[in-house]
Automatic annotation (TrEMBL):
Residues 34-185 form the Protein SirB1 N-terminal domain. It comes from Buchnera aphidicola (Anoecia oenotherae). InterPro entries: SirB1_N, TPR-like_helical_dom_sf. Gene3D superfamilies: Tetratricopeptide repeat domain. This is Protein SirB1 N-terminal domain-containing protein. Belongs to the UPF0162 family. The lineage of its organism: Bacteria, Pseudomonadati, Pseudomonadota, Gammaproteobacteria, Enterobacterales. Coiled coil: none annotated.
């Protein structure tokens, strides 16, 4: 299985790296189903877009196939966030969030020689491609709708601050590793909220393979260990965070957590 300590994205695609990560997090993850289903979709997509000549029109055909024929999109009813991230469930239900649907779209595009560029915008993942005249088209991977700069500026003002403005850095292309970490962090958070602590712990450990000794990730792992009643491991991780980030505002809260865990550890024994 792929090592996450030094990923070479020239040899392993983002999508296949994600599948390897999911397998490491959940030994029962059905990777064979995902790859088989995707193989069929890629073949269908090749035929569907081949009627168009230009890359721009082929991208539009792919979006038509993805959102209107296959009917991928956002959740239609109440859902668990992790179900919108696990790729097997996204493929089965055809429901996801912008992040998971965008990753899926990028992979399909790449396999049929089209390019969709990811941008981790402050509010969500967006994708872009180029028109024939070299102008840029941004779109929402949640529904395929085009997004203009005015809308993006409104998203910034509505979600960050009324005084914030769209910056050039907000539209910078995102690297595969940053998208992988964003997906895994979102998955970890959702698993914690859903009380799936063992899977959350596995996710945290994969993130630490990618970025060893990250004090914030070690802090999160310590909090997960506490939920699993692994008090020695929890204290080791939380104390590491205090040592490395003594001036962080959350350190005082972590010290209270450490005191609580020490009391539980004493009463447990």
């Amino acid at each position: 299985m792929l090592s996450f300590s030094n990923i070479d994205f020239s040899k392993s695609s983002l999508f296949h790296t994600i599948i390897d990560a999911f397998k490491k997090i959940d030994k029962d993850f059905p990777s064979s189903y995902v790859l088989s289903d995707l193989k069929n979709k890629i073949e269908e997509a090749k035929i569907y877009v081949s009627v168009e000549v230009t890359n721009e029109l082929q991208v539009k055909k792919l979006l038509d196939l993805f959102f209107f024929r296959w009917k991928f999109g956002g959740a239609k009813k109440k859902y668990q966030l992790s179900d919108m991230l696990w790729m097997d469930k996204v493929l089965k239900t055809r429901q996801g969030i912008a992040l998971s649907l965008g990753i899926l779209l990028m992979h399909l595009a790449k396999e049929i020689n089209l390019t969709l560029t990811p941008i981790l915008f402050p509010t969500q993942l967006i994708l872009k491609y180029f028109h024939v005249n070299k102008s840029i088209c941004f779109f929402n991977p949640l529904n395929g709708e085009t997004i203009d700069r005015r809308t993006l500026d409104m998203w910034i003002k509505g979600n960050i601050s009324p005084t914030s403005e769209l910056k050039k850095s907000d539209l910078k292309e995102s690297t595969p590793i940053s998208i992988l970490k964003k997906l895994l962090n979102t998955l970890k958070t959702s698993l914690i909220e859903e009380k799936k602590m063992e899977l959350a712990l596995n996710t945290s450990n994969v993130l630490l393979e990618i970025n060893p000794n990250n004090p914030y990730e070690i802090r999160d792992r310590g909090l997960i260990y506490a939920q699993l009643e692994c008090y020695n491991a929890s204290l080791q991780d939380l104390n590491y965070f205090i040592e490395k980030c003594p001036d962080d505002p959350i350190s005082e809260l972590i010290k209270i957590q450490i005191h609580t865990i020490e009391q539980k550890k004493t009463s447990f024994h």
